[in-house]
Amino acid sequence: MWIREAQPTEAEAHAVTELVLRSKAHWGYDAAFLAECRRELTVTAADVLPRRVLVAEGDDGGLLAVASLEGEPPHGALGLLFVAPEAMGRGIGRTLYAHVLEDARALGFTALSIDADPHAVGFYRALGARPRPDAGDAGGALPRFAVDLAPRPAWARAWADGRRAVHLGNVAEFQAQFARAGRRPRSAASSTAADHYACLAAFAGPHPVAVALPARIPAGWIDLVARQLRWARVEVYDGLDEAALLAQGGPGERWRDRPVVAWGHTDAAAQLSGRPLPAEALRYESKEQSHALFGQLAPKHPGIRVPERWPAPTRRAAARLIAARARTGARTVVKTAHGAGGSGTRIATGRVRALSLPRGPLLVEEYVTGDGTHPTYDGLVDARGAVHDVGVASMEMGGPGGTAYCGATVGPGAVPDRTAQRALRFGHDVGRALAADGYRGWFDVDFVTWDDGLLAPVETNLRLTGPSVAFMIKLRLDETRGGDHLVRCVDRVDLGARLPDGELIAFLTELTERCAGVDAVLVPTIPSAAYGPAPWLGVALAARTAPRLDAAEALVRTSCGALSRVFSPA
Q: How far apart are CA 275 and CA 279, in angstroms?
């Protein structure tokens, strides 16, 4: 389905008006009443531009729905919203409604009124429209609703210039930059994992125009996501790396008039986006460099305490440092200079064999004894070098020693206010240092909480992140469904059976419906590993309360695990 501006020729040929009248007639109105409505519901060629008439077009070119955004900012009206009877029940009306609201915000509208058909009252209530006591028409027959359009936060207006963008899942290429520098070894397994993780790039903005991913994506996945997030049609290019995108005749040549958002900055991504960075702009991606920056900034932040760290040029040197600390009863964290999602990090509680450690140089760090919470600050540096605070998320860590990133939760109550304020102030100052170095784009600062409540900054990521996905999905849901959502990204849920594409989409469709039954939203975020040797999914869950969010996660984990019984031989 495409959403586009209506053409005057379509109105002149009465195609738009006839769709409106057929939609109205679906509710059982008699011919005499419809005849009375015809003049009011007629859309002429002269109406198309001033009334901002939009249409939803099917893959066969037929019109499926029509809407209009009328008036001038700041207060306007949703003048039309009609769906062809044969297209009802497919989420087209909800998607078109979300698109009108998106356009209205971009144009500076702060409120819309809706004079609704009585049969559409439940539809508008479900979408968060607020009933108003005053009648919508002169006779007082139509229910009237109001929609308050809070302006997008500054960071969302700055990100991709507030426009729908092309999203690139170049996770493997971004990480490979540091392997080429001899800093971090890579393997075929880690590259495959990066390609699966790259599916999250589909959510690198609240509403993409196109997505280019290195993994093969199951057919039907993007359509399911679009229904959940009220996206208009999104082009998907899968199985393509950066080289294929840059090749002559490749998709990249068609994106010159669109902003391009990459997961991380690379030379190829800079060619596609037209936004190169200075050579030193990524230096704080290094844990060693970021630790030095934290030490410089911490004296101005009473709520921050930076863990001590000692460089170890070799594995043997790291093993000796660990052993010396173990003799005093101290636990130690060992890190490589670069790593994503906790890779290259381990906790040592006693003596270790040098050969069991990653290759040097290594960083040996004081273990943070605390309550186990892991806040993370997300922000962005815009094209002018201004720093925008996005927010603070609560990360979920797992794996050996709790060093592997598993997901994040954003929204009301996800992080205590005092902790969030400390992270925001410190993260903002980190962003200012990045901007001074010439960095532009998304970044985060990860923390661990000491037992006295102080925050220990542990690394900076100069790229999009798992928590960034949660912030983007929250923004989209808040705008299209109303309210203040809690969003939790769970990057890996093991499946009890391997699911081919057809079975996967059927399973996810049913699961989204079951989550809706507990008043939650399920968005499948990583679908490409569902048929692997050890199958799994990534998902994002959203709800307006913590108990509903927890209930949805329990439902998803139980359902995914139960697949082992469904597909087991009798």
A: 13
- Rg (C-alpha) for the chain, rounded Å, is 26
Residues 264-285: what's their mean pLDDT? Answer: 94
- Tokens standing for residue 86: 């044969």
- Which pairing describes strands 374-381 and 362-366: parallel, antiparallel, or unpaired? unpaired
Paired tokens of 176: 């490979």
Question: H-helix or E-strand containing 378?
Answer: strand 374-381
Q: What are phi and psi of 117, to 5 degrees?
A: -60, 140
Distance, in Å, from the CA atom of 427 to the CA atom of 378, rounded to the nearest integer, reads 8
Nearest Cα residue to 297 out of 306, 308, 309, 289? 306
Summarize the confidence of residues 108-136 as an average pLDDT.
88
Q: How would DSSP label each residue in 444-492?
A: EEEEEEBTTS-EEEEEEE-B--HHHHHHHHHHHHHHHH-S--EEEEEEE
Residue 170 near residue 246 (C-beta atoms within 8 A) = no
Q: Where are the beta strands (DSSP E) in 73-205?
A: 75-83, 111-115, 130-132, 144-148, 166-168
Taking a C-beta distance cutoff of 8 angstroms, is the pair 221, 237 a contact? Answer: no
Q: Which whole-number Å values give the CA distances from 500 to 196, 218, 219, 221, in the listed order?
A: 16, 8, 10, 12
**Of 308, 317, 310, 307, whose CA–CA distance to 360 is shortest?**
317
Burial (CB count within 10 angstroms: exposed 0-12, middle 13-18, buried 19+), residue 398: middle
Kindly indicate the confidence band of residue 341, based on its pLDDT and cuts at 50, 70 and 90.
low
d(CA 403, CA 343): 8
CA-CA-CA-CA dihedral for 490, 494, 496, 498, to nearest 10 = 100
pLDDT at position 345 is: 77
- The H-or-E segment that residue 395 falls in is strand 387-398
Q: What is the DSSP letter of 7?
A: P
pLDDT at 1 over 50: yes
Confidence tier at 183 by pLDDT (50, 70, 90): very low
Rounded distance, CA 142 to CA 24, Å? 14
CA dihedral for 118, 121, 123, 129, sign (positive or negative): positive
